[in-house]
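User: Please run a holo structure prediction.
Assistant: Happy to. Please share the sequence and the ligand.
User: Here you go; the ligand is magnesium ion.
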Amino acid sequence: MNIYDELWSKILGELENIFSEETFQEVFSNLKSTHKYQNGHVYVLVPTEFDKNRINKFYLSKINDLAKKFHKENIRFKFVTEAELVPEETLVSPELNLEFKYRTGNLNATYTFDNFVVGKSNLFAFRTAMKVADQPGSVANPLYIFGDVGLGKTHLMQAIGNYILDQNIDSKVLYVKADSFIDDYTSLVQKSKMDVFNAKYRELDVLLVDDIQILAGKTQTQMEFFKLFDILYQQNKQIVITSDKPANELKNIMSRLTTRFSVGLSVDIQVPDLEHRIEIIKKKLVTESSNITDIPKEVLSFIASSFVTNIRELEGALKRVLFYCLTYNIDLNLENTKEALEPLLKTRKKSNSLNENNFDRIQSIVSDFYQITVDDLIGKKRNSKYILPRHIAMYLIKINYNIPYKTIGSLFGDRDHSTVLAACEKIENELKHDKALELAIDTIQKKIASINHI
Ligand code: ADP
Ligand code: MG
């Protein structure tokens, strides 16, 4: 017995304990030995495609966890059918194969449900996405996923696509960023290559459009998207859309589109809490196929508490720490982690304080202009003398810095998201016909600009 067969039989022993006898017999009883070891993967042959999918979906992560437990090097299991082995074994460079993450439909194969760590902030979104992937076209159409940047919208959306493709390789899935859709509109529709455009989009079973807010102001592209949406929707083809805001807050997108977005189901993704962020880091350690498995607790907590609002940044920080310790061949401990992250934390501090100062400045410029105090500007007084400047200040912070409404609310005595949103909309509407207001805002903007340039 080679070491991989030995490992596999240990794992089988554990699986037998974990799962019911029936399940174990049904799924694993025919898989006594391994086929080969290559590139960090132990291959096990399975009789059918069905067995393979079943194992990949329900048991693979457990198997890999056990492999980690029993084997000192980081290896993973791969279940393949005989048919798949032939082309794979003739590959000139199997390493290249590992690097190749993209698959049909413009999907990134690493964005799977398996790799998505679930917590309170994304539980509902995750469950809904799973259901949609399981029964495309019939659970929620469209599925509209929104949330701030770096919180996993793209990951979740592509996980739906990957899952559907895993189930049925012939399914026509396409992931497209809204800006590529605009490009396709200009290079195909406007250049009368309608047949190419239609072949790409109208034959799809599943359309995933990322960052729909980018269509703002692009009226013609929106019209084309509207047509496409209706065609796919009428045929029960699944549509998934992501955005940085709820559909009813999208600006400069025609209302017949935004109302369409609301007919399905909207789910949001929030910022994960500390424990959840720690779990995400742990998961990334496994999926990055790094050799580090026992990272000290205090290192995990330090990274997770330093990067709060954006998982992409959290991931970047982790990679930086790993790379730093590896390059200098030093221990992965708290001290070295702090050292590795110092430049990131420093610049962030600087830009944060700059922003906070800028928000303060806008508040004091607006207060000066209307001759009220900053306390009254951000306070609770409901007199119109204070309300208008308050709304203007909120509006100006939004348009100058585009930070979330919630954050702006916190700068104005903890007002909530909807209050700030209403204030901004009110100013925007009044600006359409109130020349005096336009002039006032213009004057204030100039002051803000001149101070910012000092
Ligand atoms: P968004 O599209 O919302 O800006 P992404 O989907 O691009 O965010 O996510 C940014 C990074 O964070 C990706 O590398 C993604 O894999 C990772 N990520 C986000 N949420 C999770 C999660 N819950 N579990 C694991 N990784 C996550
Ligand atoms: Mg994204």
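The pocket of adenosine-5'-diphosphate (ligand 1) is lined by residues 115-117, 122, 147, 149-155, 280, 283, 311-312, 315 (CB under 6 Å).
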